């Protein structure tokens, strides 16, 4: 659990220090006060980048040369691990775990896995397959320990193979060697994806049934990126001629896809905007559950920007109840003080409230435990 975060020069947050963070933190305040920027800072601590800007430049406070986020993650039993990230306008990043520099973001992300749910999250359903591959690989990375090495190997092999395919004079022996390595890495990576997907599906169904029982029959299908009746080596062999013609590798894990359907129809084309958000919440909650199943001491932190938007009160309560049941740490933003606090299950510990105002964040204690209880229909679903 992230127990402390110090933020310097991220957007309108000049110096914000949040200590003694609890499991459920609600950040409320007016438009432009800095709520999303706090989530961005926590995301930076996990992945060294923002979730809403591709360059560090736009995140760094105007007029400053760099931004810094420092955090402490408690691993229980008094063990605390310090994380630090500094980004410069040039794009340079300095990452530290327990005071030691780390070269790769993978070292950082393993310490503090975060999942974002925001206004763009519906892209997971309606966007390009790459968004669903990223979603899948987030989970595979945290659950399947051999995945990252296979993924790195695969990226190297496909890059080399595509370079060779584009050469005027084809060096067949070299191409065969890289194709062989590519097939091995691709099979290994895909096996990890398959195993993770098998774990994810039943959990997703359970969560979706609680969040959107009215939605019809939701189904997830995994497409591995080549004809499933062939080995990857066979599929690569079969596509060699077209790969040579067009100068790139047509088949493989780089084309993998998750298909989401409702009553046999594309979920992206069928579901309402609010239902899409709920299905995305179910997918991301399922990832949190699978992570916890894998290692009971391991959970991820949820960064949820403006949860109430597009959701009615009943569905907002159901999402809150599921987040509470999972037991993961949650940072939620909203405009009004009671927008989330009033929706959180009455039986649970009340959320910790933070008022965000013109780049300043003030802890205002716990929400009133006397918040209205969910209606009977919601309680039934929550149960
Ligand atoms: N690089 C920057 N330097 C300084 N200020 C910035 C920078 N980028 C954005 N801002 C300002 O930071 C403020 C915080 O934005 P943020 O998106 O965090 O607000 P918010 O509280 O989430 O608002 P909303 O409720 O509208 O989503 C905004 O007023 C914005 O104009
Ligand atoms: Mg915002």
Largest sheet: 6 strands, antiparallel
CATH topology of the largest domain: Rossmann fold
CATH class of the largest domain: Alpha Beta
Structural class: alpha/beta
User: What would you give as the CATH superfamily of the largest domain?
Assistant: P-loop containing nucleotide triphosphate hydrolases
Instruction: State the separation between the terminal residues, measured CA to CA.
Output: 25 Å
Low-confidence segments, given as residue ranges, are: 370-383
| Coarse shape | globular
Strand content: 15-25%
SSE sequence, one letter per element: EEEHHEEEEHEHHHHEHHEEHHEHEHEEH
| Strand arrangement in the largest pleated sheet | 2-1-4-5-6-7
Oligomer: single chain
- Which range best describes the helical content: under 10%, 10-25%, 25-40%, 40-55%, 55-70% or over 70%? 40-55%
* Distinct helical segment count: 14
Radius of gyration: 22 Å
Ligand inventory reads:
adenosine-5'-triphosphate, magnesium ion
Structure characterization notes:
InterPro entries: DNA-binding_RecF, DNA-binding_RecF_CS, P-loop_NTPase, RecF/RecN/SMC_N, RecF_2. Residues 364-383 are annotated as: Disordered. Belongs to the RecF family. The chain has 383 residues and is α/β, with parallel strands linked by helices. The chain folds into two domains: 1-113 and 299-383, Rossmann fold; 120-297, RecF/RecN/SMC, N-terminal domain (Glutathione S-transferase Yfyf (Class Pi), Chain A, domain 2, Up-down Bundle). The protein has helices at residues 35-47, 56-59, 105-109, 123-126, 129-143, 147-166, 172-211, 232-238, 240-246, 267-270, 273-294, 313-326, 338-341, 376-382; strands at 2-10, 13-18, 24-28, 66-74, 80-88, 93-97, 100-102, 114-117, 218-223, 257-262, 265-266, 301-304, 329-334, 352-357, 360-366. The strands form three sheets. A six-stranded antiparallel β-sheet has the order 2-1-4-5-6-7. The chain has a six-stranded mixed β-sheet with strand order 8-12-13-3-14-15, sandwiched between helices. β1 and β2 form a beta hairpin. α5 crosses α7 (172-211), α6 packs across α7 and α12 (313-326) runs parallel beside α14. The longest helix is centred in the middle third of the chain and has 40 residues, at 172-211. The protein is globular, with a radius of gyration of 22 Å. The chain binds adenosine-5'-triphosphate and magnesium ion. Magnesium ion (MG) binds at residues 35-36, 305. Magnesium ion binds next to α1.
């Amino acid at each position: 659990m992230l127990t402390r975060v110090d933020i310097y020069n991220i957007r309108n947050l000049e110096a914000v220090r949040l200590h003694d963070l609890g499991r459920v933190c609600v950040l409320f305040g007016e438009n432009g006060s800095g709520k999303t920027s706090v989530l961005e800072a926590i995301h930076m601590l996990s992945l060294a980048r923002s979730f809403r800007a591709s360059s560090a430049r736009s995140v760094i406070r105007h007029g400053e040369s760099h931004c810094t986020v420092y955090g402490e993650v408690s691993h229980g039993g008094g063990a605390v691990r310090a994380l630090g990230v500094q980004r410069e306008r040039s794009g340079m990043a300095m990452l530290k775990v327990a005071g030691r520099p780390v070269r790769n973001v993978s070292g950082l992300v393993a310490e503090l896995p975060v999942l974002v749910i925001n206004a763009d999250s519906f892209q997971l359903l309606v966007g390009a397959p790459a968004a669903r591959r990223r979603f899948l690989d987030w989970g595979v990375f945290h659950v399947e320990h051999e995945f990252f090495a296979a993924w790195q190997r695969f990226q190297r092999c496909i890059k080399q193979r595509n370079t060779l395919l584009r050469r005027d004079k084809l060096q067949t022996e070299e191409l065969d060697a890289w194709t062989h390595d590519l097939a091995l890495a691709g099979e290994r990576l895909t096996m990890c994806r398959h195993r993770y997907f098998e774990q994810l599906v039943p959990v997703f169904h359970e969560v979706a049934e609680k969040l959107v029982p009215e939605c019809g029959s939701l189904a997830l299908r995994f497409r591995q990126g080549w004809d499933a009746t062939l080995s990857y080596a066979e599929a690569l062999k079969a596509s060699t001629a077209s790969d040579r013609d067009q100068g790139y590798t047509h088949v493989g894990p780089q084309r993998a896809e998750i298909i989401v359907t409702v009553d046999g129809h594309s979920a992206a084309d069928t579901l309402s905007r609010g239902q899409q958000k709920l299905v995305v919440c179910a997918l991301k909650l399922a990832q949190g559950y699978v992570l916890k199943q894998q290692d009971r001491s391991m959970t991820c932190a949820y960064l949820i920007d403006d949860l109430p938007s597009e959701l009615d009160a009943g569905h907002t309560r159901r999402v809150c109840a599921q987040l509470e049941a999972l037991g993961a740490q949650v940072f939620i933003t909203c405009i009004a003080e009671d927008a989330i606090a009033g929706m959180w299950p009455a039986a649970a510990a009340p959320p910790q409230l933070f008022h965000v105002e013109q780049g300043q964040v003030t802890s205002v204690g716990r929400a009133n435990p006397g918040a209205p209880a969910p209606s009977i229909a919601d309680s039934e679903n929550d149960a």
